[in-house]
Amino acid sequence: MSPSESVYPRGEHPDLAPPIREAGAAHWLRKNLFSSVGNGVITVLLGAVLVWSLSKLLVWALLTADFTGDSLKACTSAGACWAVVTDRFAQYWFGFFYPSEAYWRPLLAFALLGPALAPWLFELKRFSGPLKVFSLAYPLLAYWLMHGGVGLAVITTDLWGGFALTVVIGVTGIVVSLPIGILLALARQSELPVIRLCSVIFIEFIRGVPLITLLFVASFLLPLFLPEGMNFDKLVRVLIMVTLFSAAYMAEVVRGGLQAIPKGQIEAARALGLGYWQTMLQIVLPQALKIVIPGIVNTFIGLFKDTSLVAIVGLFDLLGLTQTILKDVAWIGSFVEAFLFIGLVYWVCCFAMSRYSQTLERRLDTGHRSND
Questions:
Q1: What is the CATH number of the domain that holds 290?
Q2: Rounded Cα gap, residues 351 and 304, in angstroms
């Protein structure tokens, strides 16, 4: 009897490969792009348009582009003038006023950001404990590197700018807003009326006011209400407002996850004698946060892009610095290349966060859909 005619007991038949016509690239193309005559025609037409557009873009952006020069007039070809980026490359990353001899300090701070975040973002079998200790010390280390003091020349925050400032605001807002948002979500579901009311008022007020309004209040109005001679750094004020703004939205995302957890689990935990914080930290929050991973990352991405608003209050982040460069007589008219460059920078950062969230979802098996 041939193997194909063999009889196996129920439940013991080996897994067989799918038929050739039901697997592979040919099957995917037939199913998704050429499932009918009409779909095939549309696929061919859209493919032709895409190839034509990409070829034109390639010629303009690379093949006929100029990459060096000290002004727009120095770009003589018909392609893009990337000299606006290469000529001011250091300023895009560090701003106009950060001393060039100290560029190594923010570079080192950013290099150390990876090890500081690694134990919280990935499952590390080795060095997890020491890296978590390093993570707790990293904020002070990064501030010392960028600001100075105790052996390093002081560089005040009004001299910070460019992508470095964008990263400082974005990472600080993301890291700090998550725990605050979780606490606000728990407070909004608290059985204590005062705590619940305070959380509701804060969340609804922050969500009802545009971020730009809060930045204006922090930058221009708040100093008017402080005692004479008392003031604190504008960047610190902006960081506080950006963090609180993001935390209010984060609280609603987390609250959605909390509401998805069956009350029976909480009642079972109480029956086992677990206290409130034991129940939340060990049972409810791990499940709730896994459910709302897409919403959390979406809030983070929105926060990172909203950092561009700080240009309106006089901070030279990546967008504000680009707008200032384009006011230079030498680079007037180079806005396409300049904004394409910073758009690519923002896209790379946001795409990386999006891909990480998808990886995290698969690792934690948070989805309930089939893989078909």
A1: 1.10.3720.10
A2: 12
